[in-house]
Amino acid sequence: MKDEFLDDAEAHTLAKHQILQEYLKGWLPILGQGQTNRLLFFDGFAGCGELTKGHPGSPVVAIQTAMKALSGQAPLEIRMVEKDPARCAYLLKIIQRERKATSTLYPSIRVFDPICGECEPAVTQLLDDHARSRKPLGPALFFLDQYGYSNIPMALLQRILSNSKCETFSYLNWQRMHPYFTDPTKADTFTRALGGDEWRDVQALQGQQRIDGFKAIYVRLLRERAKAKFVYDFAMRGRDHRPIYWLFFCTNSIKGLEVMKKAMWKVDPTGRFEFSDRDAEQGMLTGYTQEMLADDLHRDLCGQTLSSDGLKEYVLTKTPEYTFKEAIEVLKSRGCAKEQRRADQTIYVFTDPPMKTMSMFAD
Fold first, then answer.
1. Which domain holds residue 317?
2. 157 lies in the same domain as 67
3. How many domains does the chain have?
């Protein structure tokens, strides 16, 4: 029975695939414009291509999104890896079915047969082949949706990101990881995942302090050790609202970060960038607004002058938002921001509101 190895279509899994879909909808057309080198989507833990209840798996999400987003522009390669033989065999049947739709109508999309094996050797082989050929690897998105926490070493992320226009969207399972921080038999796997022993700094912590402390360490190491200029995460929570895992997006492109934050907003319009199976059943709460962004910009930038590019990067990297036009209008109405034109840039000046004076002749 195929249901024995199909992954459950949990609400948080569908939310994860929605983020992937929304990102590819924005990523593929942007990078496909005028692109002569092929684009690459690499699914390192592809599963069997299908979830329970007939929902598509991540490779099929990528294929079907590409058919709608590319419209025959740039060439795209879709490659995938699955280590379980039975799941890989089932995935091959799914891919052969999908390829019938792409081969005639979308000849620029090339879908490869799945590699039956481990992700790390497959990615390493791809990197080695490109290094020998001296052909550019990117533009590429590596979707590294591992099942736990030990199969994607920091060194592999660093090597991927060292290639121009390459991004990673990876998974780290907190639920499976944190109970074993004091288990000496797991120490090597944690050290490999982080590229060092910094994870030991949270061994003595408990509860939310341990969660926040570990995530802060991992994000810092993605920047310092994997050399990702921009890192953004999305948390998935279960029916008890406890964290299950994080998705970490790494890129060296501010445009890539903008597209990913837009995709994350589609799934969590509160700006907290998390999804909870509990909230999926009970409804989402109101979250971050442009009024809140205006307050934060005034608090953090008062007395400063930023170009439009500088403000865009600030908003993308320091706030939940990806757009700021409405917030600027709010600040202008308060007398807290001014716009100036200089060459091809808009300059934003953030100030305190003007003092209100009382006339001595007032009633």
1. 290-350
2. yes
3. 2
- The pTM of the full predicted model, rounded to 2 decimals, is 0.91
139 upstream amide cis, omega within 30 of 0: yes
Angle at alpha carbon of residue 23, lines to 22 and 25, rounded to 5°: 65
For the segment 74-117, what is each residue's pLDDT rounded down to a tens digit?
A: 789 999 999 999 999 999 999 999 988 887 788 889 999 999 99
Domain of 327, CATH number, reads 1.10.10.10
The CA distances from residue 64 to 13, 143, 228, in Å, are 17, 16, 29
To 10 degrees, the CA torsion angle through 19, 25, 30, 35? 110
172: Cα within 13 Å, side-chain hemisphere: 27
Whether 294 and 330 have beta carbons less than 8 Å apart is answered as yes
Query: Count of CB atoms within 10 A of residue 94's CB?
Result: 20
pLDDT tens by residue, 173-216: 999 999 999 999 999 999 999 999 999 999 999 999 999 999 99
Looking at the structure, tell me whether residues 257 and 346 fall in a common domain.
no
DSSP conformation letters of 287-349: ---HHHHHHHHHHHHTT-EEEHHHHHHHHHHHSS-S--HHHHHHHHHHT-EEEEEETTEEEEE
Q: Is residue 21 part of a domain?
A: yes
Instruction: Indicate if 146 and 166 belong to the same structural domain.
Output: yes
Three-class SS state of 270: coil
The candidate with the shortest Cα–Cα distance to 288, out of 313, 324, 239, 243, is: 324
Domain boundary among 282, 303, 319: 282
